[in-house]
Every structure is written in C-alpha cells, then in structure tokens.
Here is the input.
Amino acid sequence: MNLWFQDAILIGALTTWLPFIAFLLILLLTRDDHRLSGELRLQRWRDHSPGPSFSWLDNGGRASRSTTPRVVHRGRDLYTFGYLLDSVSVLMLLLVAGISFLVQVYSLGYMAGIRDIHAILRFNHFLRGR
Amino acid sequence: MTLSISSALLQLYVFWELVGLSSYLLIGFWYERFSATEAGKKAFVMTRLGDVSFFIGILLVLLHLGNLEILEVNSPVIAARLPSGIPTLAALLIFGAWSAKAHSSAHDMAPDAMEGPTPVSALLHSATMVAAGVFLLARLFHSSANPGRR
Here is the structure.
C-alpha cells in the first residue's frame, strides 16, 4: 500500500486543525481567566464561521471538493482524505454552528458560577469541531 | 464541522466515533453521581451498537465497490455495481444513524443523556447527534435507497 501526499494536504490540514490549535493556545494562555478565555474563543469562532464556505459552492449547487492524501492499493484509489462541500454539508455546518453559537453565549452567563465551566466549554469546542 | 465535510466514508466514520466519544464523556461528566455513570454506560452501549453496524456497512461498500468516496458511492453508475440483493447495506447504515437518536425507539436514551451539563448536553443531543443521524441518511440516500438499480 503506497501513500502519495499531494500539495492540497496543507489546505486540508489547515482548515481542519487550525481552529483547534487556536483553541488550544487560547486555553493554555488564558487558563487563569475563564471569562476572558471564553470571550476570546467566541471571537475566534466568529472569525472562522462557515460563511465563506458558500463561495466554495458553484452556481449549480454541485459539490466542490479537494482531495488530499491518497491511499492507493494495486493501482487504484482506495481512499482519499479531503473535504466535500455541497448543499447538505453547508446546511449541517450552519445548523450546528448556529446552535452551538447560541448555546455558547447562553452558557457563559447561565453557568458562570459553576466550578467546572472551563472544562464544559472545552467539551463544547471539541464537539463543535467534530 | 469535520464530520459534515468528510469526503469519504472512513473519514466520516472516524469523526462519527469522536462525536460518540464526546457524548459518552459528556454524559458521565459528573461521574460522582451514580445516575450519570449509569446513563453514560447506557449511551455507550447504544451508540456502539449503531457504530458497529455502520462500520459493517462501510466494509460492505468497500467490498463491493472498492472505494469509499462519498461522491462515487452516491453516483448512480457506481452504485449500480452494488448487488441488488443487498438491502442489508441500507439496513446497516440506517441502524448506524438510528444510534444517533435520529429515529424513534432510540429516544429512550435521550432523557438519561441529559445527565450531562445543560449547555453542552443541549448542543450535543438536540443539535449535533440528531442532525448527524439525519445528515448521514441524507448523505448516503442514493446508495442506500437504490442498490443495484440500473
């Protein structure tokens, strides 16, 4: 089984993991100030909201995709890593991102007195990323 | 996010499992409570049942089509290579989605799943998991609805 890594791996890796690296950095640097940490993560989320994804869809509403690394077995593609954006994907993105944003805003006030609010918000971010 | 933009079934499955892991960890978040640990175990067993069937469905697709790309699996030309007597594929995939509480009769675990912290529980069980189940059905609709159709 051979592996070929194409140039687009950089795009795939960045779009997938950069938000989480940002989350980790904010968590580490602001771990003593939970409110500041939550506000920064909200700001970071807003900057990476899925709005620009619309530009990846063509006028026909067909899927826009980019393949990244390929796993080739006996001369044919067995599996490729990448992303697939179509109307179903964007609908799902908007649904989850919108509700998670509302939940995040709501929970900052609702659970402000909870001892483990920091850990709960971490769950929230992890889940939203998945 | 990554689940919804996955381009291949295996990739989708990996992130599907991570959602299940998040669910289990969330429900058992307050593990000092007996009810929370019990609810976590219940959710774990139910989601694993669906995940196993989903995985078997993926293996069947790989076996018959030799490819896990969603676009190709959904292509009518490629999907026509699936044997016509393979309703089990659709059943397995639908059962996988069922585990995410997308269907009735799986809602039994939903009240127990509220043992987790309220905001994340609301996000996970009202938006993400249920939507993910429906998303999976929508994503694989063509291949699971018309196997072997020419």
